Amino acid sequence: QVQLVESGGGLVQPGGSLRLSCGAYGLTFSYYRMGWYRQAPGKERELVAGISSTGISTNYTDSVKGRFTISRDNAKNTVYLQMNSLKPEDTAVYFCNGVRAFTKAEAWGQGTQVIVSS
Question: Which of 4, 9, 3 is closest to 112 using CA atoms?
């Protein structure tokens, strides 16, 4: 059974940092392009960052460029999102996503809440 499990969310003050992790189970992780999405209350889910299956290529939404870093460890079947200089507008539920090469089979995690507030 394919499963993505996020961890690392929580409450942090503006300017602080968090690192989200997403462990992948039941799939060949190195076949998957991975991404982090977020959804704030009353807003649509948006792509925050993506990383290719090898980790060579990454992309970010403009609002997080220079503050967030996505990375992966294929040996540990894990993708990370390092979030620095957090702002209140980063408050959202963050979801891990994986898309398999060729078949485009997709998997989602259950989400982890990030709250940026003083």
Answer: 9
